[in-house]
Amino acid sequence: MTTDTNDCRPAGRNALPAPPPLDCSANCALFLDFDGTLVDIAPQPDAIAVDPALPGLLDALSTRLDGRLAIVSGRAVADLDRHLGKLDVAYAGSHGGEFRPSGSDAVELLAPPLPREAEDEVRDFVSHSEGLLAEAKPLGIAMHYRAAPAREDAVLELASELSARLGLEMKRGKMVVELLTPGSDKGSAVARFMDMEQFRDATPLFLGDDVTDEDAFEIVREHGGTAILVGEERESAAGWRLSGVGEVHRWLKAALA
Ligand SMILES: O=P(O)(O)OC[C@H]1O[C@H](O[C@H]2O[C@H](CO)[C@@H](O)[C@H](O)[C@H]2O)[C@H](O)[C@@H](O)[C@@H]1O
Predict the structure, then answer these.
(1) What whole-number distance in Å separates Cα of residue 240 and Cα of residue 229?
(2) Could you say which of 41, 87, 124, 170 has the lowest number of CB atoms within 10 Å?
(3) Distance from CA of residue 114 to its chain's centroid?
(4) Angle subtended by helix axes 245-254 and 54-64, to nearest 10
C-alpha cells in the first residue's frame, strides 16, 4: 500500500468512511468497475442479474459528465455490451487490454492475443475437473473455481506454470485466475483515458471491489483523485468505501437528483 499524502482522503483513520456525494457539476471523471461494483457477484459469469435501471443510469451520468464516464472491467467489451446493451459510454475491457472511447468507436486491442497453446491447455484441464469453468476473452482466458473451491491450488499451479512457460501475466480475482498477454491493467486504462481530450484536467474517481482495481486506485491517487472501495473493508489504496452494489447505485442515483 502506498503512503504518499497526495490523496483526497481523510488521514489517520483505520475504517474507511463513506465518500461525499458525487457532484456532477465539478470537473470530475467517473471510472466504474463492473462485477462486484455495478452488479452483484453471482455463481457464474453469465448468471449475473443486471438491474434494469442500470443502463439508463450510466447513460444519464455520462451525459451529465459530458462523456467523462468509463466502465473499466476485467470482462471483454463484447460481454459488457451483451449484459448492458450497447451504451454510448467509454469502456476499457479485459483489464485494460481492450479500449473503446465511445459507443461509435471500434474496440482497440492493446495487446496480442493469448497463444493458442495456453487456451488449449486451460480448456483441457477444465474439462477434466468438475465445477471449473473456462471463460475465453479476446486477450486472455479465465479459470473460475467458485463452484469447486477445493480446486483452487491446482488451478493456481497450472496458471503459474503456463505464465512462467509462455511469458503470460496472471491476474487473480474473486474465485478466478486469469492468464493474459502482459502490458495492460486497470491503472494503464485509467491513465489512457486521462490522456484523452474529454477526460484531461478532470479529477478522477474510481469505484471498484477487487484486487485488480488497486492498480486503478493508485493511478487515480496520482492524479489527485478519489479511490472508493466497494464491499468489505480490506487493505487497499482506496480512501473511501461503499458497502456494496446497492449502496453504489444509491450514491450514483443521488448525483442525478
Ligand atoms: O473487473 P470486473 O468488472 O469486476 O470483472 C472481474 C471479473 O468478473 C467476472 O468474474 C467475477 O464475477 C462472476 C459473476 O459474478 C463470478 O461468478 C466470478 O467468480 C467472479 O470472479 C468475470 O467473469 C471475469 O471475466 C472478470 O475478470
Answers:
(1) 6
(2) 124
(3) 20
(4) 40
Per the DSSP assignment, residues forming a β-bridge with 32 are 71, 207
pLDDT digits over 144-203, tens only?
A: 999 999 999 999 999 999 999 999 999 999 999 999 999 999 999 999 999 999 999 999
**Which cell goes with 78?**
463484447
Q: Does residue 33 carry a catalytic annotation?
A: yes
Q: Which residues pair with 99 in a beta bridge?
A: 92, 108
pTM over 0.90: yes
With cell 471491489, the residue in question is 209
pLDDT at 14: 64
Catalytic pick among 7, 33, 79, 209: 33
Number of domains into which the chain is organized: 2
ipTM of the prediction: 0.99
Residue nearest to atom 19 of ligand 1 (CA): 175
Gap between the terminal Cα atoms of the chain: 35
**Are 169 and 105 within one domain?**
no
| Residue 173 beta carbon below 6 angstroms from any ligand 1 atom | yes
Q: Are residues 72 and 101 in the same domain?
A: yes
